[in-house]
Amino acid sequence: MWSRRDFMALAGGGFLAALSAPTRAEIYKSEQLFAATCRFKNGEFGLAILNQSGQLISSEKLPSRGHDVVQCPNSGNILVFARRPGLFAALFVHNGRPIGQVDAVAGRHFYGHGVFSPDGKFFYATENDFDGARGIIGVYLIGAQQIERIGEFYSNGIGPHDIQLSVDNQYLIVANGGIETHPDFSRTKLNLATMKPNVSWLSVKDGSVAASFEPPLAWHKLSLRHMATADGRVVWVGGQLQEEAKSDVPLLAKLSLDGGIEFLNIERDLQRELRGYVGSVETSADGEHICVSSPKGNRAMVFDRHGNVQKVQVLSDVCALAAAPGFGFQFGTGSGSFGTIGQLPVEINGLHFDNHMIRLVSS
Amino acid sequence: MIRTIASAICALIITAPAFADGAEQRAVDKFIVPGYQAFESAADAQIEAMDALCAVPSDKALTAAQSAFSDLALSWSHIEVIRFGPVLQENRLERILFWPDRKSIGLKQVQRVIAQQDESAITIGSLVQKSVALQGLGALEFVLFGTGAQDDLHKENSFRCQYGLTIASALREVGAEISTEWTKPDGFGNLLITPDEKSDTYRNNSETMRDILGVVAHGPEIIFDTRLKKYLGESAASSAPKSALFWRSGLTFKSMAANITALGKFAEAVDFNDLLGEEDHWVADSYLFEAKNGIRASQLETLVLEAPISDARNKLEYLAVVLRSMGEIAGQDLAQALGQSAGFSSLDGD
Question: CA-to-CA distance for A161 and A176, rounded, in angstroms?
Fold first, then answer.
């Protein structure tokens, strides 16, 4: 659980002194903080930190549109990845102050997701070797002065998107969405007829493939993109159908290294509401509940681990989700609504939530 | 800064367009169905021309087959602005035109089929089981205009001609499939015109309008991204003339002009002004005005392979500006005027 003592320690007295009295008061009351990529009223893109009430604690501009946010389990620092085909990963202190940035190397761009090593010394980013049409995991060392890209390996597919770390820290779990893109053609999808998504377990040491799971051939256009895991063993992955939506194609699957891939048998009427598109996936800390959002279907849904629906909320353009222990699941929408699933949201004027959000935890 | 939305929980927040009645019907009746039917007819004419060429090769017959290709390719350039519905199923879009062919993978496959005289490519049943790149307009263009075409197509019943005939038949077939899917009683046209809460496709007019608006909002961007960006490059030095679609047949600019003309025609068919208050008519009018600018800018006399490195480059750079403007007018102003708030996440997800 977030504590104001942690935030104050990390933020430093200068930061707090610079805040208005009401904002300081909000921080003192804050039990949880969230970090989200967003678009501001002036059209610029950035990172916003808010408390559970939707009070904006800090905001920073990004070089261009961001995508996912991850937090270092050791330092508490926040890393924001550029949205594909973006070229930056930006590092912030816990309070949202920028402290560093790394640009994609020649011939690569970021896909918008990454994960820290448990000690926080490294991070791994999903990237595109666009001339080779190969997914890449870039390996980065966070030094005292700079962030250095020290290596890369094949992601075992095309279009790697989300990435998670296994419970024993031995494997990177990568959702290869299967879609080829190249900057010459912007975001045009180049291989929809032949795309083959998978979720692969790759050795952290050398990228060797321990296991790889694909959807059945009939569902090869289901791009597996976003994942969540509570325990680093069982991974929930949400799909995005690359053709007209069909309610008989399941959009949520459970995977594990020894259990393979198992699609959840979600009630067809509910699946229909997702419009073939899951934009974000979250799981509760105990792994018993999974929340998915669909900005195309304007729905956020909570399921138990067997696929039984627990809550459905209609929310225009909802995508960003974060697990909020003790509160359920938090969401942010493209029109600025922010709240907890099942409760009245607030609208934050001038802030448009982008695809992803995390709950900040104290280190 | 914060205000509570009293009605947010379990209440639809989407702003549904208030005047959408009829727009979908007009889109289907005046643009979509006639467009696919015209493509089918052009494919029929192509089959006829290929048949004649294969039976009695001659300069005249080859010219007629090439002319039929021009009609067919441009009829596709018209209706291809529709990027939703049955064309997205069964790889139909890619089967008609596999493009961009970034690494010339499709071209190499076509060249291999011709070089090896792959018999399985000259029966329609087996051709449609092959790579999508072997079945469409890109393949047919190479058959009729590519290296070796003049020699091969002057031989009676040549393999190359038979392959071209089979491609034309495959195009006719996929065109007919799309038409049927749109027009049959429980088909896609009906889904679009009568949204239903239980529909997999459209629950309400907001969702139908998202696809209608998407044609004019995303169309200009698709033209730029897939037809102009790499071809033009950031400078003459970085341009890639041979990356142009249909450069062998000389249809590059005509195809782009047909795309832009079609966007304007689609907007006219939908009649956005009928959906807008008079104070917002300037938005749809501006779109049509820019479309005309785009059509003019894409009418170039310069050779396709020379244009990006000649004075014509200025005109193409202007075309890029016009396309961006069209996208902004439709994606921002028109969307707002229609009450179709631009979904930050939903319109361009990731």
Answer: 6
Who among B2, B95, B198 is closest to A347 (CB)?
A: B2
Structure tokens at A329: 């699941």
Closest CB from B88, B102, B341 relative to A335: B341
- Domain of B227 in residue numbering reads as 205-337
Interface test with A, best of B182, B197, B345 (most A CBs within 10 A): B345
This model of the complex carries an ipTM of 0.90
Q: What is the residue type of B161?
A: C
Checking if the pLDDT of A28 tops 90, the result is no
Q: How far apart are CA A237 and CA B347, in angstroms?
A: 22
Label residue B93 by pLDDT band (50, 70, 90). Answer: very high
CB B241 within 8 A of CB B232: no
CA distance to partner chain A, nearest, from residue B78 (Å): 19
Within 8 A of B9 by CB-CB distance, chain A residues are: 313, 342-345
Q: Which domain holds residue A83?
A: 62-158+187-212
Which is it for strands A108-116 and A122-129: parallel, antiparallel or unpaired? antiparallel
pLDDT range class, residue B340, cuts 50, 70, 90: confident
Rounded CA separation B101/A249 (Å): 29
Q: Is there a contact between B200 and A243 if contact means CB atoms under 8 Å apart?
A: no
Asked if the structure places residue A200 within a domain, the reply is yes
Domain-located, residue A252: no
Other beta carbons within 10 Å of A109: 22
- Asked if the Cβ–Cβ distance from A185 to B229 is below 8 Å, we say yes
Q: Which of B139, B169, B193 is the last residue of a domain?
A: B193
**Of the candidates B130, B159, B193, which is a domain's last residue?**
B193
Retrieve residue B185's tokens: 């009683």
Q: How many whole angstroms separate alpha carbon A140 and alpha carbon A282?
A: 25
Token digits of residue A82: 């550029």
> pTM score > 0.95 for this model?
no
Residue numbers in B near A275 (CB within 8 A): 207
**Residue corresponding to tokens 């030095």:** B237
Q: How far is A348 from chain B (nearest CA, A)?
A: 5
Residues B220-254 pLDDT 10s: 999 999 999 999 999 999 999 999 999 999 999 99
Gyration radius of chain B over CA positions: 22
- CA A123 – CA A118 distance, rounded (Å): 9
Is residue A175 within 8 A of residue A160, CB to CB? The reply is: yes
